[in-house]
Amino acid sequence: MIEDMLLIWKFKSGNKEALARIYEKYKCDLLRVAAALLTRTALAEDIVHDVFISFAQAADRLRVTGNLKGYLVTSVVNRARNINYEQVRQAVAQPEQINSLDDDCQRPEQWLITTEEFTRVKNTMAVLPYQQREVITLHLYGEMTFEAIAKSQSLSINTVQSRYRYGLDKLRSLLNGEVKNETDR
Predict the structure, then answer these.
(1) Which residue from 65, 45, 63, 52 is spatially nearest to 22, judged by alpha carbons?
(2) How far apart are CA 25 and CA 128, in angstroms?
(3) Which of 7, 19, 138, 172 is least surrounded, with the fewest CB atoms within 10 Å of its CB?
(4) 3-state class of 109 per DSSP?
(5) Do residues 13 and 88 both lie within one domain?
(6) What are phi and psi of 120, to 5 degrees?
């Protein structure tokens, strides 16, 4: 938190290395959040880059009063939400195979499941209602507390916890059904 405050101060003072450090520090986390919320990895990468471009252009107006990571995650979620709403409106939202993210973001200690398993979970998460998928993603990938999620979405903490619980139950049910179907073959 102190490092982030210092980086923001340096960045607002015109230090380009501070922006580069912020990008390197958070890009993998933001890519994971965006990839979990969207159906196309390339689109997730575009959103993260757009967020950082907007962030860089807003240096003089930037007012990050809390957690920098939370601010950036919220920006990514808002952009992903807008894209998902647009896709639903145009009725073109189709889950597709995930390509791997940047190799430097796939460290074994951060990605505990294989690409095949991640793809299966990702495709199954795409079936969840968006509100449940968003809360699960923010909590698990964005490492946000339920309280922070509730605040960022202007919801009660009970609503956020319910969406998380119902989403996990449905995800578990869908994945267990998938496992049963595979063993029946």
Answers:
(1) 52
(2) 30
(3) 172
(4) coil
(5) yes
(6) -65, -45
φ, ψ at 152 (rounded to 5°) = -70, -25
Per DSSP, the three-state class of 83 is: helix
Q: How far apart are CA 118 and CA 9, in angstroms?
A: 37
Q: How far is CA 170 from CA 63, 68, 86, 119, 140, in A?
A: 38, 32, 25, 17, 16
Lookup: tokens for 93? 């939202």
Q: Which pLDDT tens digit goes with each residue over 152-163?
A: 888 999 999 999
Which of these ranges, 6-15, 37-46, 81-90, 130-139, has the smallest mean pLDDT? 81-90
Q: Among all chains, which residue has been given the structure tokens 């933001």? A: 30
Task: Find the CATH number of the domain harbouring 155.
Answer: 1.10.10.10
Tell me phi and psi for residue 40, to 5 degrees. Answer: -125, 125
User: Which tens digit of pLDDT belongs to each residue from 22-53?
Assistant: 999 999 889 888 888 886 777 888 899 999 99
Helix (H) or strand (E) segment spanning residue 176: helix 157-184
Tokens 């699960």 locate to 136
Residue count of the chain, please give it: 185
Owning domain of residue 43 = 1-94
Letter string b/e over residues 114-145, b meaning 16 or more CB atoms within 10 A of that residue's CB? eeeebbbbbbbbbebeebbbbbbbbbebbebe
User: The tokens of 107 are what?
Assistant: 């460290």
**132 close to 170: Cβ distance less than 8 angstroms:** yes
Number of domains present in the structure of the chain: 2
